């Protein structure tokens, strides 16, 4: 999912709700908006670190009862203490706004907003409300619309309707690299409703409807998998015709995994490199070599090609649904790290960034 971990000159708490048109209400009339999107639409004040610019407006369905799921790393998990509207998500507030105001403000930002994404939650009303919002967005907005789906509440025909109603792309947040980790953190292990088989079934069917490269799969690095586990999962996603959108696990205070450590930078950099190779059909997981600990030691392509990938830097930018180019419009500024330790770069890397990435790739401690 999307958010921003650090901004400059943010004075959000000093603004009264009425002055900012911040509300409490239910979808489809109201939607939560990521703090980064709220800043982009001028709903709240703030300046992005290093002038990062959000190119995808991320909205989240909202209901008084909250999300019915209980994913261990999620700030919206039903077992987390507090009222639903007071819960952070990806470490920031997601204020609620009228859907019509979001449309109006998005249109005003047509020069920088290249996509809008509707994120579902696990709730009995979410499916029908997503159809309602999707139809309105596709009829009234200037940009393509993505759906971050909740497979647990969907059937195959719902995927057909997403396509029929104008969605440009759809995404499945598989998150975990293995069925065991999925069940532990999203399914039976936390009393949650999600099932590995259902998520993969919806992923497969979505590709059959939307086509190759028009379906994404979220994967979170650092939930306990090895590098080999994640790389072969990304290959499985690619073989289905989808592409992987990577996140570095980043603790959410109050979640069940609030004390779970973030993976080392070297691990994430190697996974990012492998994802780029796999998703752009430059090589395959089976050709890569791994140590006894599961860490990649050879990417299976000529060294000069790996060096070129590093020098270009795009492999280390945020991955997600594209905008005007193949580079992700959904660049989620600092959604999986602090600006002092950037994991997914929301902008083009400079020479200093590339030098840092090059060093981190060789870190195996």
Note down, in words, how this protein is organized.
- The chain has 365 residues and is an alpha/beta fold.
- It has a domain at 7-258: TIM Barrel (Alpha-Beta Barrel).
- Helix content is 30%, strand content 14%.
- The protein contains 10 helices and 12 strands.
- The chain has helices spanning 35-40, 99-108, 126-140, 156-164, 179-185, 196-210, 227-239, 265-279, 303-312, 351-361; strands at residues 7-8, 30-33, 47-48, 56-60, 96-98, 115-119, 145-149, 169-175, 215-221, 243-248, 289-290, 296-298.
- It has an 8-stranded mixed β-sheet with strand order 5-2-4-6-7-8-9-10. A two-stranded antiparallel sheet has the order 1-3.
- Helix 3 links the parallel strand 6 and strand 7 (145-149).
- The radius of gyration is 19 Å and the shape is globular.
What form results from the Cα inertia axes?
globular
Question: Regions with pLDDT < 50 over 5+ consecutive residues?
Answer: 1-20
Nearest-integer average pLDDT: 90
* Name given to the CATH architecture of one domain: Alpha-Beta Barrel
Task: Give the structure's gist in a few sentences.
With 365 residues, this protein is α/β, with parallel strands linked by helices.
Question: Which features would summarize this protein structure in a list?
Answer:
single chain, 365 residues, alpha/beta, TIM Barrel, eight-stranded mixed β-sheet, two-stranded antiparallel ribbon, 10 helices, 12 strands, 30% helix, disordered N terminus
What order do the helices and strands come in, and which of them pair?
Elements: E1 7-8, E2 30-33, H1 35-40, E3 47-48, E4 56-60, E5 96-98, H2 99-108, E6 115-119, H3 126-140, E7 145-149, H4 156-164, E8 169-175, H5 179-185, H6 196-210, E9 215-221, H7 227-239, E10 243-248, H8 265-279, E11 289-290, E12 296-298, H9 303-312, H10 351-361
Parallel strand pairs: 4-6, 6-7, 7-8, 8-9, 9-10
Antiparallel strand pairs: 1-3, 2-4, 2-5, 11-12
Helix pairs in contact: 4-6, 7-8, 8-10
């Amino acid at each position: 999912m999307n958010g921003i971990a650090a901004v400059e000159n943010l004075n959000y708490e000093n603004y009264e709700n009425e002055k900012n048109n911040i509300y409490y209400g239910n979808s489809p009339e109201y939607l939560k908006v990521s703090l980064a999107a709220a800043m982009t639409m001028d709903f709240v004040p703030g300046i992005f670190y290093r002038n990062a610019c959000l190119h995808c407006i991320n909205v989240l369905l909202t209901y008084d009862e909250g999300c019915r799921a209980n994913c261990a790393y999620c700030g919206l998990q039903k077992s987390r203490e507090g009222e639903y509207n007071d819960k952070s998500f990806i470490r920031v507030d997601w204020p609620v706004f009228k859907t019509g105001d979001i449309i109006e403000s998005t249109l005003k930002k047509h020069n920088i907003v290249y996509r809008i994404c509707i994120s579902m939650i696990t709730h009995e009303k979410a499916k029908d409300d997503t159809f309602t919002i999707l139809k309105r967005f596709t009829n009234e907005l200037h940009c393509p619309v993505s759906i971050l789906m909740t497979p647990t509440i969907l059937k195959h025909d719902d995927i057909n309707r997403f396509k029929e109603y104008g969605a440009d792309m759809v995404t499945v947040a598989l998150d975990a690299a293995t069925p065991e980790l999925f069940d532990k953190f999203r399914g039976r292990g936390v009393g949650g409703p999600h099932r590995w088989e259902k998520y993969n079934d919806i992923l497969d069917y979505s590709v059959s409807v939307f086509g190759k490269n028009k379906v994404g799969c979220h994967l979170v690095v650092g939930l306990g998998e090895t590098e080999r586990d994640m790389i072969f999962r990304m290959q499985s996603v690619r073989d289905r015709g989808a592409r992987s959108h990577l996140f570095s696990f980043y603790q959410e205070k109050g979640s069940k995994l609030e004390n779970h450590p973030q993976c080392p930078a070297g691990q994430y950099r190697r996974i990012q490199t492998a994802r780029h190779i796999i998703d752009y059909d430059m090589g395959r997981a089976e050709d890569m070599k791994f140590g006894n600990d599961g860490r990649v030691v050879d990417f299976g392509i000529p060294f000069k090609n790996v060096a070129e990938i590093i020098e270009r830097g795009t492999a280390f930018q945020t991955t997600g649904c594209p905008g005007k180019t193949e580079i992700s419009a959904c660049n989620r500024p600092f959604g999986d790290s602090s600006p002092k330790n950037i994991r997914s770069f929301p902008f083009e890397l400079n020479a200093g960034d590339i030098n840092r990435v090059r060093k981190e790739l060789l870190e195996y401690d």
